[in-house]
């Protein structure tokens, strides 16, 4: 039965937002299993989803396969890290709100501990030469990784523009043209006006709502996402912890597409506006977010650490992930309705290609942050490794870091 039909104090009923309630899974089991995924979840969202599916659908049979796939689709409709939201939702499905909180924390915390420890090493005042080399090497590969991430997201977004009433047919020419225009706008915005990228993303989504759906028509209410807060809070404009919290909030609540879209959303604030870190250090932060387990949004922890030490790192991560918990705890029971909401679908049809363009466009300022000739050679090699050899992101960054260590030990400039 659905949540709204059960008793509020019944764990079994609260654990089943759709479908029949499952056996009451102990919180200690959720903590153990989600903690294991948090430790071993290298490889980003595809790896996280595979591990969650293996645990909840294939091995334990806690969640029906169809319901799990629907949850993936619903999480992809939300801003923020989709795989983290899926991990939280699975805990919510098994043990209600308590299960959601335990699952989310155990999924996030192992990567958080690791990334803060690495941040302390890489951002130290006088790190060892080999650490500087590893950072410079991994950072050199990041622009290629950004383009690779955009390339991987493009097919699903392109397929979204098809007319759902005529599946399998080519999208109308006007829709294809809009998709390309949105992507180009996103790329240009990420490369030039980073702090206003959120406005561009929302504008493109709202335009697509206007094209596809008559605003205010019966059954088609305007998407609430169009009314998200956009103005920079006055306290954040002065810098400090308020600015750090605002930057992290944008990542968690306004990053349609999750993952690499955090780069254009954070880079300008972290490097140019508040000077928490240099361009090279931001490259290090992105690389650390990729090579550690857990969600890529943990990159906010490195930025927070650079801004205000361990406390800043914890604050940034708490703010960045709080929207994901809120979306599931407050809206998990409405996932089916969310998937069927036409304005939401139209919004993402416009915002999706803009996000992809922004991720690809972020490669331009990232590449400009490189300061040594050998890094550009390593960037070219990383691009060949990703696109020609079709290798993974983690292996790309680790090999680039190893090359950087060799370059540093050979006497190449690394700082």
Automatic annotation (TrEMBL):
InterPro entries: Chr_Tranpt_l_chain (IPR014047), CHR_Transporter (IPR052518), Chromate_transpt (IPR003370). Keywords: Cell membrane, Membrane, Transmembrane, Transmembrane helix. The gene is chrA. The chain crosses the membrane at residues 101-124, 130-158, 179-210, 302-332, 344-367, 396-414. GO terms for cellular component: plasma membrane. Belongs to the chromate ion transporter (CHR) (TC 2.A.51) family. It comes from the Bacteria. One of its GO terms (molecular function) is chromate transmembrane transporter activity. The keyword Cell membrane applies. It is a multi-pass membrane protein. Residues 1-20 are annotated as: Disordered. This is Chromate efflux transporter. It is found in: Cell membrane. Pfam families: Chromate_transp.
């Amino acid at each position: 039965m659905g949540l709204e039909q059960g008793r509020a104090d019944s764990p079994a009923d609260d654990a089943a937002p759709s479908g029949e309630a499952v056996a009451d899974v102990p919180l200690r089991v959720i903590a153990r299993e989600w903690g294991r995924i948090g430790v071993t979840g290298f490889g980003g969202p595809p790896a996280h989803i595979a591990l969650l599916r293996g645990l909840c659908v294939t091995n334990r049979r806690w969640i029906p396969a169809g319901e799990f796939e629907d949850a993936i689709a619903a999480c992809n409709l939300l801003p923020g890290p989709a795989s983290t939201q899926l991990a939280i939702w699975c805990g919510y499905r098994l043990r209600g709100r308590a299960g959601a909180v335990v699952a989310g924390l155990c999924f996030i915390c192992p990567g958080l501990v690791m990334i803060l420890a690495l941040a302390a090493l890489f951002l130290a005042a006088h790190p060892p030469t080999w650490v500087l080399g590893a950072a410079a090497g991994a950072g050199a590969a990041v622009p290629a990784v950004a383009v690779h991430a955009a390339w991987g997201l493009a097919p699903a977004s392109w397929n979204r523009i098809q007319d759902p009433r005529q599946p399998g047919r080519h999208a109308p020419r006007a829709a294809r043209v809009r998709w390309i225009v949105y992507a180009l706008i996103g790329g240009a915005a990420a490369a030039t006006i980073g702090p206003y990228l959120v406005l561009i993303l929302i504008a493109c989504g709202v335009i697509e709502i206007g094209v596809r759906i008559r605003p205010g028509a019966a059954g088609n209410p305007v998407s609430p996402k169009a009314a998200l807060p956009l103005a920079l809070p006055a306290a954040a404009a002065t810098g400090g912890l308020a600015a750090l919290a605002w930057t992290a909030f944008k990542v968690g609540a306004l990053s349609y597409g999750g993952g690499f879209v955090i780069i254009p959303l954070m880079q300008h604030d972290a490097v140019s506006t508040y000077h928490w870190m240099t361009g090279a250090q931001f490259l290090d932060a992105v690389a650390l977010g990729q090579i550690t387990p857990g969600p890529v949004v943990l990159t906010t922890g490195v930025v927070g650490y650079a801004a205000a030490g361990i406390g800043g790192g914890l604050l940034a991560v708490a703010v960045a992930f709080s929207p994901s918990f809120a979306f599931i705890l407050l809206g998990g029971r409405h996932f089916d309705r969310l998937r069927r909401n036409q304005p939401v679908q139209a919004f993402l049809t416009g915002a999706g290609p803009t996000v992809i363009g922004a991720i690809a466009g972020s490669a331009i300022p990232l590449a400009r942050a490189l300061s040594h000739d050998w890094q550009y050679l390593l960037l070219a090699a990383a691009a060949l490794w990703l696109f020609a050899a079709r290798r993974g992101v983690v292996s790309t960054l680790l090999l680039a870091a190893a090359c950087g260590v060799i370059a540093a030990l050979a006497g190449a400039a690394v700082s």
